[in-house]
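If you are new to this repository, start here. Below is one unmodified record pulled from the training split, so you can see the exact layout before writing a loader.
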Amino acid sequence: MRLDLRPIIHVPGASLPFSFTLDLRQEEFFGEHPISQPVTVEGVVENIADVLVLQGQARSVLDLTCDRCMSPFQQEKAVDLHCLLAESLEGEEDEGEIVLLDQGELDVGELAYTAFILDMDTKHLCSEDCKGLCPGCGANLNQEPCRCKKQADPRWAALEQLLDKN
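And here is the target side for that same chain:
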């Protein structure tokens, strides 16, 4: 979505709200497509003392698989959008915090897309205290106890034989 900011560029105190959705269902992360619902993007561009400031948020609900227990779960994802906008840069300023306008217009869709994709996590847990799967029997330790037979420590085998005789 392109915003025409020319009406507010030289008008201190003016603002331009925006609201739209992004369809990112085709985006693949490690063989999965977790963004199954539209990403809602809302915000405003304000002219504060002849400085254009964009503030907003991109949010959606992700369909994920826990990396420890392999259970599917949903998690809300919200990414804050905040940047300064300029028609051109003068001098050696930090370009990382300033987004340049293209003939007075800004592609907010591309800005939101980039911010949302770059903020995706590489590890997903259904809960912070997820116990995961037993490496021996494969039981989901969040739902059931381990079914493995306890293996005796071979260093104590002689003592165990003495106890078995009694």
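Two things worth knowing about this chain: The radius of gyration is 27 Å. The mean pLDDT is 89.
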